[in-house]
Amino acid sequence: MKPDCIVHVIDDDEAVRESLAFLLLASGYTARTYSSADEFLSILDQIAHGCVVTDIRMPGMDGLDLVSHLQDIRPVLPVIVITGHADVPLAVQAMKAGARDFIEKPFDDHSILEAVASALQSGDEISAGRTPAHVVRQRIAVLTNRERQVLRGLVDGQSNKAIARELEISPRTIEIYRANLMTKMDARTLSELVRMALVAGEQLAYPSTPPSLT
Predict the structure, then answer these.
(1) Cα torsion 122, 125, 130, 133: sign
(2) Which of 31, 71, 153, 200 would disulfide-bridge 98, Cβ 3.0–4.6 Å?
(3) CA distances from 83 to 146, 154, 194 (A)
(4) Which SMART domains does the annotation name (predicted)?
């Protein structure tokens, strides 16, 4: 097994750690498990390659703080954040802080393995696998005004309910707009949608041409 195929799993739930380790081992990876971010950081100087899969909510240092810390001292180590539905705003913050991806619970085997495979690629391959910025901007250019508003809310880390309150529409309508965004942006997951929006940068915040009002 190549050293860059090591996956470091951090979760305070032993059952989750062991389940993920079993899946990763069965898929050909080397898996190492830790019950806390502090335990992982205590041996960080021994780690040169691989990726990290961490829960967002843990006793002591949480997943968000871990992402920020690793960006400061080991930015080449990609991090995938595991999050519950209510923690998606925190996961978005983690992506802004430098996380490679986030996976919502309950997740299927394919989702986590795909995220790990992507994270373990080299920097050039990761860049090649992402949608180019000019393509993202073209997709955003055809969004309606309301769709842009919903997308901005998601990128700001807001929940569906919070976006619904701000726009004075129902949470169910927000779900419909989110589904439309996924289709128009050609995003398979919410984390991919958020990543695209972050790539678009200022165009999302200040569109050059007024979009439609629908």
Answers:
(1) positive
(2) 71
(3) 27, 15, 15
(4) HTH_LUXR, REC
Query: pLDDT for 30-73, tens place per residue?
Result: 999 999 999 999 999 998 889 999 999 999 999 999 999 999 99
Provide the whole-model pTM.
0.78
| CA angle, 144 then 162 then 78, to 5° | 85
Question: Which of 130, 120, 1, 123 has its CA nearest to residue 52?
Answer: 120
Taking the C-alpha atoms of residue 13 and residue 97, their distance in angstroms, rounded to an integer, is: 24
- Quickly tell me which residue has 């200022």 as its tokens: 202
The tokens for 52 are: 């990290």
| Domains present along the chain, CATH in parentheses | 3-128 (3.40.50.2300), 130-205 (1.10.10.10)
